[in-house]
Specification:
This protein is an all-alpha fold and 359 residues long. The chain has a single domain, classed as Mitochondrial carrier fold (Alpha/alpha barrel). 71% of the residues lie in helices and 0% in strands. The protein is built from 15 helices and no strands. Its main location: mitochondrion.
Amino acid sequence: MEKTSSLTRVAEFSSPKLEALKKLPRISDYELPSLRQRISEMDNNDAAEETSRGYDSAGHLNDYDDYEALPESSTLTTHLIAGAFAGMAEHCVMYPVDSVKTRMQCMKPSPNAIYKNVFNGLTTIIRNEGANGTMRGINAVALGAGPAHALYFACYEKMKKVLSTNPGRNPLANAVAGCLATVVHDAAMNPVEVIKQRMQMYNSPYKNVTDCFRRVLRTEGTSAFYRSYTTQLTMNIPFQTVHFVTYELGQEYLNSERRYNPKTHVVSGAAAGAIAAAITTPLDVCKTLLNTQEQGVTHGRRSINGMLHAFRTIYDLGGIRGYFKGIGARVVFQMPATALSWSVYEFFKYFLTNQWPNT
């Protein structure tokens, strides 16, 4: 009975009375300056309160409450330390896979160094050369990766702030910052790459890292350590552009508040590393050839110099497929390595910011 009565009242109200209500003047049709002024004052007060709590007008955390944007007094040191740990973790943990990738990119590999895939490469090297066979040259990386990545991340974070008023949320600024950071990083890392890759080769003639450095310097000169620098930049600038843009887009989608969130750093980092690695594999093959000066290719002739020379040589020996040698190993290396690098970097940035805010 009550239900029927309610429906009757709704029906009675629905037609002529509703039309009458629609014709009533709206509150905005009146001049209510005092009310409008009061609302404006409330809005201003709310905005001021949000700002005092650490939020800007767009609802994002302010610099001092967001670990992504550190105080100016602590930015450089924090990013240097976090970047150094990230670089060592990235290169050292995944070093055995990197060794397999270098050998798989050889143009004329020894019959004993032909691998079907990453797992086959690892097991074959360990079986024939022992576990140390996968780690030759790691000393050079351990010494060089820390300083190079410290400069890399510090430059990246600094340039994000210089180029954009909203650091980390501008894809173009992220890309440019990544490119500039790469120029600095590669200048420090290129000699390390030369020594590392020569040590990784099958039947490498060098006893250790020091022996490799001395012999290359004596027989080929200082220029040998920067023979692949142009190619490295040509590879790493698009690599880092794709890498940083992908990572920041992943963070924007998965972690829009830019809080410390290990899961999102891992996922975004892995995706960024895999995509960038696959796209730039042809240039990585060229870099490997320039760094190693593979004996089976040069045959005692003049060294392979420059990216174009390397490109022609690879095409002559392997055709189009030659440019993608080791692509699987490269992606397998870069996915976890980049995820680990970003995870370690974000952790130390968060840790240092919260534990030692004046670092």
